[in-house]
Amino acid sequence: MCRIAGIVSGRLPIGEIRDKVNQMCRAQQHGGPDGDGVFYDENVGLAFGHRRLSIIDLSSNGSQPMADHHQKARITFNGEIYNYPDLKIELLQSGAKFKSDSDTEVILQAYVYWGTAAFSKLKGMFAFALYDIEKNVTYLVRDTAGIKPLYYATANQTLVFASEVRAFKAAGLHTENDGEWQIRLLAFGNIPEPYTTLKNVFSLPKGHFLSWDNKTAGYTLNSYCADEPLNTVMHTEEARQLINFTLNKSVKRQLVADAPIGVFLSGGIDSSLIALLANQYKKEQLKTISIFFDEKSYDERAYQQIICGKINGQNFSHLVKQGDFENAFPQVMKAMDMPTTDGINSWFISKYAHENGLKAVLSGIGADELFGGYPSFKRIKYLGYLRKLPGRLLRSLSFLAPGNYKRLSLLGIDHPVAAYLVLRGLFLPEDIAAILDTDTKHIKEVLFSSFGDAVPDTYDNEHASWFETELYMQNQLLRDTDVMSMSHGLEVRVPFLDEDFTRAAKSVAPSIRFNAQQPKKLLIDSFSSLLPTEIWSRPKMGFTFPLQNWMTELDQMSDINSFKGKKAREIITKFKNNNLHWSKAFALYQVQNHG
């Protein structure tokens, strides 16, 4: 796990390219505190930069940017390849030579022997740039689940890329703000891919590679993903065995590390299951990291202790108080690469994991999306019924309906993403227009013009799963987890998003994978002998902080005079009177204070 950056340009002097790549790497130093390196080719006008967080092969042999044995290619790589031992055996049989034990070198040799077909063979979380010296081509590649970030810009015959958006600004490249990011944040609570806060800086789509011709400065964007699995598992017992086998396999191979590794343990189903499985495969005692609160309605210590009692390891449990939140708030804001209404919890637990000596942890992200763990899975069908009402009637609800029911007016917009904003959106287009002093038509154009045919227009569990995976998890959970953990030099691995596991889960017929009465029933039943009843039979809490109370007491959030505009002040007044969810106030705060 590291941070990467680079520039390929036939226009800029090589000295300037090298200096700017160094600046980009320094801006991302927190994500790679163990070392750095820069490779440049002045004949091409290319420089690759790297900040290293050593997890596999801690020796200098694992340093980057790295070349293959025959100097045919160079790579700067962020992430982990979990099946690299198997790929290495296959490559050795083909005649490949290795000088390190790193997964980075396996990527290089895989490309040398198999070309771009190698990308689909990689199983893990990754984002990398690879320079084919003979073909004079640069590739940018991102994993199929979009776990690792990779941002790029193409202008003036120049390719620029980095792991974080802040790196572009630090090097004085593409510094112009995208004037529409505020609209997206106020609606979604995040900035959906491929957009960023900077104009013409985009996120590379997951499961894709960008091929850049270093000579002509032309490029193509290509998918390397395999086809979605068909619903081939039609029997419950077969599904349970498949889920059990593939999750065990995922956890086992994601524990591979030459540095200390542990598990985030919240006490919910997903983290508890990951911890219990990891305990079976960890050769030494497993370390788990937990957070608890004085506020009893948020305190999950009792459930954390149930799991800890079944693990042969050490639990590091940390009390977080309102004072801790207030003191850390400036650091949390600084750690954000882009504005978001999530990530505070990830910042704290990553901080404690780092302080307790861990360099990598396993997380339970992804299970809710795959197995129907969110309220949206129950609500989605009702939205389908409402969509059949006349659009004019639905749109009138923005004026006639009380409170949160006003969001149903979005169903009057002929676009599938409108349903997502009913389920998870923050502000209505009319409110966003008032906040930003623009017209509602412009707001709707921005919100609904950027999603193509991939959005399903059905109202069933698979639709809800698509929403939660592609819009919520992708743009909020994964991005915030990555940037907040890496701000503490910590790697977060996500076994539920392992390629083999997600493919297995999606091969199960929806009638078995989702259950209306018991969320995540298939997952629970697949591990009925391992997962204690107390863990799954309680109401879902989620890994949340008491932020409604804490944000209200935070000076920056409650000072009406620090907010500009009549609408913004009305919103903050509602928040102070506890009539508004903290996430809306937090989004508004960032819109008015983001640099």
Automatic annotation (TrEMBL):
InterPro entries: Asn_synth_AEB, Asn_synthase, ASN_synthetase/amidase, AsnB_N, GATase_2_dom, Ntn_hydrolases_N, Rossmann-like_a/b/a_fold. The active site is at C2 (for gatase activity). L-glutamine binds at D103. It holds the Pfam family GATase_7. GO terms for molecular function: asparagine synthase (glutamine-hydrolyzing) activity; ATP binding. ATP binds at I291, S363, G364. It comes from the Bacteria. Coiled coil: none annotated. GO terms for cellular component: cytosol. Pathway: Amino-acid biosynthesis; L-asparagine biosynthesis; L-asparagine from L-aspartate (L-Gln route): step 1/1. It is an enzyme of class 6 (ligase). It catalyses: L-aspartate + L-glutamine + ATP + H2O = L-asparagine + L-glutamate + AMP + diphosphate + H(+). Residues 2-215 form the Glutamine amidotransferase type-2 domain. Its EC number is 6.3.5.4. Keywords: Amino-acid biosynthesis, Asparagine biosynthesis, ATP-binding, Glutamine amidotransferase, Nucleotide-binding. GO terms for biological process: asparagine biosynthetic process. The keyword Ligase does not apply. CDD domains: Asn_synthase_B_C, AsnB. The keyword ATP-binding applies. Belongs to the asparagine synthetase family. This is asparagine synthase (glutamine-hydrolyzing). It comes from Mucilaginibacter oryzae.
